[in-house]
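Sequence, structure tokens reproduced for absentees:
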Amino acid sequence: MKLYEFMGKELFKKYGIPVPQGLVASTPEEAGRAAAEMGEVVLKSQILTGKRGKAGGIKFACNPEEAVAEAKQLLGMELRGFKVEKILVEKKIAIDQELYLAITVDGSARQPVILASAEGGMDIEEVPEEKIVKKLVDVTIGVQPYMARDIAWLLGLSGEMAKQAAKIITALYRVFKENDAELVEINPLVVSGNRLLAADAKVTIDDEALYRQPELPRVEEKTETEKKAHALGLSYVELDGDIAIMANGAGITMATLDIIQHYGGRPANFLDAGGGAGVETTARALEILLATNPKVIFINIFGGITRCDDVANAFVQVKEKQDIPVPVVIRLVGTNEELGVKILKEHGIEAYRTMDEAARKAVELARTS
């Protein structure tokens, strides 16, 4: 379960991690009152996804009037599939340096790992490996002061800044451990004058441990499209690409996402139609994909319980009911494969036999669309 930024910062404050002064607003008037109290402010859309700034979800205001106007623009808008219902209004701070700090689980080592970098304010995946500090944590002893000081030194901090960083690192581990978190992240952790501040907060709690965390808020994470898919019994997650994916089974769906990325494409979603999806469910799944306005739809079916002819009939059914304005790449292999391919061919649709060939075609079409 992901927490909104303002919830993460409330949690940080409980553990002594300093954050900018801020107030949550649900109306433009509340944003204006917050600006009247704080002066120059930043208004941050509260949605459960990153890259808000690039999507227009972060605005600045110099006075209450500007804050009201910007809040009117933000509240109610849709960003990356999420409707903005709250904004965090924070006092604008001077940023002298941006750092990165996070704690998550290293699956191969089966231990918590602290990740830190002097290259904050950007996606950690884009930071070169040699610029990332990684320290595994022994859960029997936790984060000892010497480890926190060592990480602060490796970030290039010294003196009072290093002391503040060490305290934040120790406190962040307590947030991680005591709240059964899968991830706690501060990006950026900013140097502002003579202090360090958590300018952002990302906290993800282990769903299986929520029963042990009655004091934590419960957050509904699904977008409207994800809710529709869930109601149909489909496993669906929105992504930020332009190639819509449908496959039958979690493993093949993940493999499809991987091979699309391997060829330089960008998946728009994860949609597992399940091992026994019939014509109606498959047709509804296709309608969901079309509603996301992708450049290409890639259907990858390995027929077992789900028969290839059922998938072919479902696609034909959707095609006859509504216009499909984007190219569709279909790969069919398995149960009733020949019949499925024949049904599609009768309607002028080519089916591919290998995932590699189909994926390359989908990426090529997305690039030229």
